[in-house]
Amino acid sequence: MINEKMKNYGNNRSVIRDLFEFGNQKKAEVGAENVFDFSLGNPNVPAPKEVNETIKELIDTKDDIYLHGYTSAQGDAKCREAIVKDLNRRFATSFRKENLYITCGAAASLKIILTALYAEGDEVIVFTPYFPEYKVFVETTGAKVVEVASDPSSFQIDFNLLEKALNPNTKSLIVNSPNNPSGVVYTEENIQKLAALLEKKQEEYGHPIYLITDEPYRELVYDGIKVPFVTKYYRNTVVCYSYSKSLALPGERIGYVLVPDEIDDSKDIYAAVCGAGRALGYVCAPSMMQHVLERCTGLVSDLNEYKEKRDLIYRALTDMGFTCIHPDGAFYLFVRSPIADANAFSEKAKEFNLLLVPADSFGTPGFVRIAYCVSTDMIKRSLPAFEKLAACYK
Ligand code: PLP
Questions:
Q1: What is the atom index within ligand 1 of the atom nearest the CA of 244?
Q2: Atom 7 (ligand 1): residue with closest C-alpha?
C-alpha cells in the first residue's frame, strides 16, 4: 500500500515548479536568452562576499569533523549564540541560545513548529495570498487551514474578516511580512491591532493563540520601510526564519525557529520543537552553514540591486497599463490579471515566453506573481514581450 496523500502531493506538483520545468524545456528549444522566467524565488543577487570568504577560510583552516560532522540537534552552540547576539543588538531583545533551534530553512522551521503545536481538529489561520506550501505543512499535521482574505485595496489584514474567522479551535495564525507573493509589509499599526485582537481572543477562549511569523524576507525592504519585529508586540509569537533570501543561500538549507521565554509553555514548546525535528528526521541542520552563520548572520545581499529591479519592472508594467500592488519588500510583483482567469492569462504570457505564476494556489485568483529576483538585463529584455502581452488586452 502507498500513502495516497503523499502520492497526490508528489503527482500534483506546485504550479511554480511546473512553470519552472516548462521554462527549462522551452530554454532547450528556443535558447535560454529568449525565455523570460519569472517563476521562482531563487535570489540572483549573491550573498555578501564574506559568506564565500568564510567558507574558503573554514575549509583551509578547520578539520573535517568540525566542518562536516553532526552538530547538536538544536544547532551548534556558537552558531546559536551568534544569532541571538545579533538579534538582541538589532531588536533590543534578550533572547538566549536556548530559545533557538537551527533548521534546514523556513520550510523546515514551519513544518517543525506546526508539528510541535498541532493536533487533529486544530485550526490555523492564514491570510490570502499565502505561500502555497503552508497548506501541505498544516494538513499533514491533521490540522485545518482557515483562509482569511486580505484587504483587496492594500493587501494588509482585513480585521473584520479575521474577527469572524477566529474561534475556540484557532490555535495559531501564520503571518508572512514582507509577503510572498504581494511584496506587502504589514504596518506597525496593523501589527499592534493584530496583537490587541489576539490578546482579547486568548482571554475569551482561555487558551493561548500562537502567532507564527514566517520571515524569510525580513531584511528585504526598500525606501527605509521598517518591518516591525513581532515578538516586541505580541507575547505569544514564534519566529520562523531562513537565510535562503537574505543571504541568497536557498540551496544550502539553513534557518531557525525562535521560541521566546515569554510565550506560554515556552519550555514544553521548545521540547516539542526538538521532538518534531527528530520525528521528521532532520537530525541537524547543515554543519558547514552553521559555522558560516557564526560569522555572517545579520549580513544581507545588496538591497540596492533588488530595489533597482523592483523600480524598473514596477514602473514599466504600470506604464503599460497593468495594475500592480506596490511592493515595499521581498522580490515579487503581484499583478492583477486583465482577465478574470489568471491561469488563461499566464497561458497567454507563455506565448511570448513570459513565465508568470497564476496566484490561484496562493488563495487569490485573478492575479499573477512575477519573481523579479532575476538579472536586470533579463528584465530589460523582457519588456517588449510584456508590451505584446499588454496589447492582447487593449
Ligand atoms: N515561506 C515563504 C513565504 C517563502 O516564500 C519561502 C520560499 O520561497 C519559504 C517559506 C521557504 O523558504 P526556505 O527555502 O528557507 O525553506
A1: 15
A2: 41
